[in-house]
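[Automated response] Your request has been received and processed.

Submitted sequence:
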Amino acid sequence: MVSEKTSPIAIVMGSDSDMKVMKSCIEQLGEFGIKPVVRIISAHRTPEVAADFAQNATDNGIKVIIAAAGMAAHLAGAMAAKVTLPIIGVPLDSGGGLGGMDALLSTVQMPPGVPVATVAIGKAGARNAAILAVQILALADAGLSEKLSDFKQKQKQKVIEKDAALQ
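Generated structure:
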């Protein structure tokens, strides 16, 4: 068993190939001063590891799990089945010709009582997963709340500047 680093956010991916997308999630969290626990765990190839990780997440200080997977995309659901923590699912394009729609539907279509907050497919979704996780933590963390407000203000300013450049 891999010992967990202390972080309020964990990112789990079904495969190392998912890192090319999830790197944007890790970078976005870094902008808020958060270094997440990052793991490669398969809901199908390592189900015992997935269950163990989820069941011990709270004891390891994790407050939000971001789970990214393509194809069958069961990782977020596998995490949600084992914990009461917020789970954010990032559907990924597995290259099977469906553009990630298969993963989106697998991630979002959860049975009643086992919710997974699902974001967009790919890098935009990965970045939004990071921001959503920060929003969840900011409810009980004034410092993160302030960083989040600053982030939103910077986004607003960028749009104003782009508009002004067109005038």
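Summary generated for your ticket: Residues 142-166 form the longest helix (25 residues). The first strand starts at residue 9 and ends at 13.
If you did not submit this request, please reply to this message.
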